[in-house]
Design brief:
Length: 414
Amino acid sequence: MQYKVIFLSVAALLFLSACPDSPTNPQDDNPYKQESIDWPSLADSPWPMWGHDPQWTFRSQYIGPNTNDTFRVYQNLTGAMWESGFLIDENDNIYITTSWDSSFVNTFNKSVGVITRLNADYQIVWRKAVAYESVSEINGFINVVPVISKEGVCVFGSDCSLTRIKDDGIIESRTIINQNCPMWALQIDKEGNLYWANNGISSYTVNGEIRWENTTREFTFIGPFAPQGDRIYASSRDSTFALDAASGNILWSRPGKGSISVDCNGKIYTLTDSSVLAIMPDGNLDWETKLLVNGIQYFSGSTNITVGPEGNLYFDVWNNSSAIISVSPEGDIRWLYQVEDNVDAWIIADAAGNTYTYSTDGRIFSLDSNGELRWSTQVFSSIGEEIFMAINSRGELLIAGVRNDEFNGIIKIG
């Protein structure tokens, strides 16, 4: 009998320790905790596309640096790294695009757009020109963020060329697209088809064959996919749209602008000038929160909405000055961090809920999930244009796409 009591006691302890409702695991009670979405066509890597993933959460699966140790690890001496971004593959190799580059000028008699692969030690592995047939411009260039798919790196140039390159640098295919050419970033569905916006929205196969085009609205911004992959979101100057991914038909629209992100439960987040909205997959409004803090009305200045690991939202706002704001997945304002200079910048999050961004005074800084400053570092005297950030598998924060007279290359923090 004594053995039976001991056995039942041990079993009860084991059960309680594993119970998700146990007070030792309070985070397990969070119904908004985020999970990654399986996306068969996309490379399983630290940062394979714009926004990190097809839901555009801007959230890394790794924890970023807890130190502001700063290193300039790569300098581009032949081209301008702006409006084009960079990617990180599963082995921490880096793909960067130069909007224009003089390294192939002897070949094409002009500067052209170039994609470069660096290894994990920031050494050049190969370089490929991908925008060199432009006839309406003096120089070809790249101003569209590529994507690393299972089929290779897909990159678009100003000559309307869609190029797919294997990781060994071999160009697998190159097609000139005569229809609507993309701006800003490529999107990819679960089957590997590509999507982009430039007034209209287009979808093509990875080999450059058109699937559909919707020009019924002036779509200014392609957006994220629903977790199921059956619909894609986009925005015009004042509205958010849901489109059927197979046909391009508009399913619904609501007021909203610019930035759109989707959480793992399929809820859509977007902004108006003075509020943040949560929209259900069927287009119904879940909640709308005014950007009102301590009686002060703030206005959205955000370039992106970041979805943290616990479902909290992060984006920048402004009144007389800029600030970073965090809103809970239920629509409550959690905190506001006032910034001395302007932000108007990309914000990314790591697996612990820390955020990383920069201000126009040349400072890069990190906040913890409660809005407290973790570290700050003065990298430039000022930042006048957009730069790109990502976290690799080693937990290093990489900063690239610097259109700056002081430095043009990649900076590592951590």
